């Protein structure tokens, strides 16, 4: 996954932003499909069929799923746990706001 994400990061920065984002989402979705989606139990996404038939929507869903799994893994590796996340939510939100506001 790490090597695949490095390749995604190397996608031509000269492309228009929407083209680059679509290409990145496509590559990350492919990476997700080749790695995480092969594991059991599989994550099942429910939704309106007309939206889930769109390749772009499916790519974004897979991209977000991989981002969520990476975030959870990093959180765990840095010593975070379920209880800390549940009971420290306000502190985390304050910190996130301060980082966003500069």
Walk me through what this model shows.
This protein starts with a helix and ends with a helix. It has helices at 2-9, 17-34, 49-52, 55-77, 82-87, 89-101. The radius of gyration is 16 Å and the shape is globular. α1 (2-9) runs antiparallel to α2 (17-34) and α2 packs across α4 (55-77). The protein has 102 residues and is an all-alpha fold. The model has no long low-confidence stretch (mean pLDDT 90). The longest helix has 23 residues, at 55-77.
> Beta-strand level of the residues, as a percent range?
under 5%
Gross geometry: globular
Q: What is the H/E order?
A: HHHHHH
Helix content: over 70%
Structural class: mainly alpha
Task: State Rg.
Answer: 16 Å
**What is the helix tally?**
6
- The number of distinct β-strands equals 0
Distance between the termini: 31 Å
Major β-sheet annotation: none
Mean pLDDT: 90
Low-confidence regions: none
Characteristic terms for this protein:
mainly alpha
Task: Write the topology of this structure.
Blueprint: H1 2-9, H2 17-34, H3 49-52, H4 55-77, H5 82-87, H6 89-101
Helix pairs in contact: 1-2, 2-4
Provide a compact summary of the structure.
By secondary structure, the chain is an all-alpha fold. The protein contains six helices and no strands.
């Amino acid at each position: 996954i790490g090597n695949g994400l490095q390749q995604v990061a190397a996608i031509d920065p000269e492309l228009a932003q929407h083209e680059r984002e679509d290409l990145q989402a496509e590559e990350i979705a492919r990476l997700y499909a080749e790695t995480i989606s092969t594991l059991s139990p599989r994550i099942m996404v429910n939704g309106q069929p007309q939206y889930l038939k769109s390749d772009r929507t499916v790519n974004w869903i897979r991209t977000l799923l991989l981002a969520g799994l990476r975030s959870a893994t990093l959180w765990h590796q840095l010593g975070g746990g379920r209880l800390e996340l549940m009971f420290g939510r306000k502190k985390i939100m304050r910190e996130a706001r301060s980082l966003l506001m500069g």
